[in-house]
Design brief:
By secondary structure, this protein is an alpha/beta fold. The protein has 2 domains: 8-283, Nucleoside phosphorylase/phosphoribosyltransferase catalytic domain (Pyrimidine Nucleoside Phosphorylase, Chain A, domain 2, 3-Layer(aba) Sandwich); 292-373, Aldehyde Oxidoreductase, domain 3. The protein has helices at residues 8-21, 25-36, 64-74, 93-97, 109-119, 132-143, 150-163, 184-200, 222-233, 239-253, 256-265, 267-278, 309-319, 363-368; strands spanning 52-56, 79-83, 121-125, 168-175, 205-211, 219-220, 292-297, 302-307, 335-338, 345-346, 351-357, 370-373, 385-388. The strands form 4 sheets. The chain has a 4-stranded mixed β-sheet with strand order 1-4-5-13, sandwiched between helices. Strands 6-9-11-7 form a 4-stranded antiparallel β-sheet, with helices on both faces. The radius of gyration is 21 Å and the shape is globular. The two termini are 33 Å apart.
Amino acid sequence: MVDPAVPDYQLAAFLMAVVLRGLTDRETTGLLEAMVDSGDRIDLSPVGRPVADKHSTGGVGDKTTLVVAPLVAAAGTPVAKLSGRGLGHTGGTLDKLESIPGFRVDLSIPELVSQVAEHGIAVAAQTADIVPADKRLYALRDVTATVQSIPLIATSIMSKKIAAGASRLVLDVKVGEGAFMEDLDSARALSQAMMRLGDAARLPTTCMLSSMDEPLGCAVGNALEVAEAVATLEGRGPAEFTELCLVAAGLMLGDRTAADEALRSGRALAAYREWISAQGGDPDAALPEAPDVTDVRADRSGVVACCHSRGIADAAMRLGAGRARKEDAVDHAVGIVVHRKRGDRVEAGDVLATVHSRGPADDDAVRASFELVDGGVERGPAVLEITSAGT
């Protein structure tokens, strides 16, 4: 089915059959193997050590890779990652990195392997030779309403991870209104499917489920998120975002203590600076800044029940921080910084968020993303669940 000679109409019919009837584990594994075999695999053996990888299913304000990769590399485990650009309300890691002056995302496979061996981290755009079948399948799924199928989602993600050549993998499966999987049961089912595929491919895979009802951290928007990632590596990041990064790094390392020490000692910040420089970026260069900065204030007193991630993401997209179509340009400077989240007490007139824009800000849309109540609200954990194969 993934052979280039198969016409689109037959492949589209196959995708619809998968959505309606599902796939057995054996069929899902067969599809995965065919997808991986449709292109090249990256050989990371020249690195000389086990290489770790991570993947997030997409969220609002998700700049985790920019913190986790340096944490893991600083603790002695190299990181190699192929990433994508954002589409819709979720941001892309490459868009964030391209906010940094000079940073190169288009590395050849030999360049990627060499950089991982020498500097411990490489994050690059997926080449056309890695799982070309997935690109075709994804394009058809998008136009035939066959996106929401766990076997198809799982094989799409895992085929690229297996082809990328890492020795261990951590998957951050987002759950909630700003995530691809909106409920916990669906997220668990996707996690189990991906872990089974990892086990079949001899790629040890661990899944962490984390909430995406609110933005991750405070910053939403490319350059703003880079700045927050650097602040986190300096020990000044939002508490729940720092905790999620340390959990993910600990899972990739098999040692949470090593991740904590890498952050506390400053070695993770040094690893970040080395990585950015190795890919042509200037870690000391000023990031793009929007000309207009507007504070959005509360119109009543209360406690924040939720800062809705989808509302903030949609407002940031309208500013130009994201793209509705693949060909759209992204404005790296614009975005929104959230100052109040679940459980925070606010008084009328307090600043809820700051909008960085080119022109007037839509205060009402941003303000409407904050749900205020009169009673107390408890904060939730940064990570909801952690599962590995067989658990």
